[in-house]
Design a protein that fits this description.
This protein is of the alpha+beta class. Helix content is about 20%, strand content about 30%. A six-stranded antiparallel sheet has the order 1-2-3-4-5-6, with helices on one face. α1 runs antiparallel to α2 (about 105-120).
Length: about 120
Amino acid sequence: MDLLVLIAKAADVCLKPWSHAVVPLDSSAAAELDDLNVRIECRDGDGQRHPDRDIELEIYRSGEEINLMLSWWDQPDRPMLWHGRHPVWMDGESGQRCSAPQDATPLEALGRRLRSLVQPG
């Protein structure tokens, strides 16, 4: 199955009740795990877009490890989630480590699910 479809399905499971579509931000790397950058677009049950709930996902390789960066689209004031071997929340503007926001649980679940999809072995 296409990686972008798997990402959308993972978002649907972890970020209920919303449904999601995945839009590549760099068409040249649409299926490359070494450097994939996409926007996960959010819709409600009636198909109405909710851009305030969109998430940017960056997947990149560091040595043998696959790392993820999840952040709210166009909301640098909100914390972002780096997910390597474990999740780390960072301030969206400074990049400094910070505590998890109140709504962290679904995004952390999405990070775990996505990392299990892309990290070999």
